[in-house]
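Can anyone check this?
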Amino acid sequence: MKDKVYKYSAISLIVINFITLYLFYDYFTENPAMFRGLGILMNFFRLIIFSVGLGIILLGIRLFFHLRKKTNPIKTHFLYIFSAILGANLFINWLICIFMELIKLDSMLNFAIFTLLAISIFSIIDIYKLNFINKNK
């Protein structure tokens, strides 16, 4: 189990790196105009909304299996690990943008970003608890 989590975490970080590189080069290929950078901001917002939606769906599946007392196939699933790491990464990027004053703190994105933070913290704790803590039997 631990090997799968490590492998999927590494793959998730590589995929997130490619997404970041795409957004970085997409910004530099935009035509210099009045609203330069608006495209990357919209991509960032879409990525946050996508990540919140994916996290809610995966937590719903996780809750379904937990309530049915069935084996949990999602505890080492790639998408579950990916959504947790992506959520944490997007929250860190949002904090950096706040501190650099690129995004205002009173934006409408705050509810989505704090929901994303809660989802990613719960998912990371869940992954850690299910896969890395030895249970005394």
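Reply from J.R.: I decoded it. The chain has a mean pLDDT of 84.
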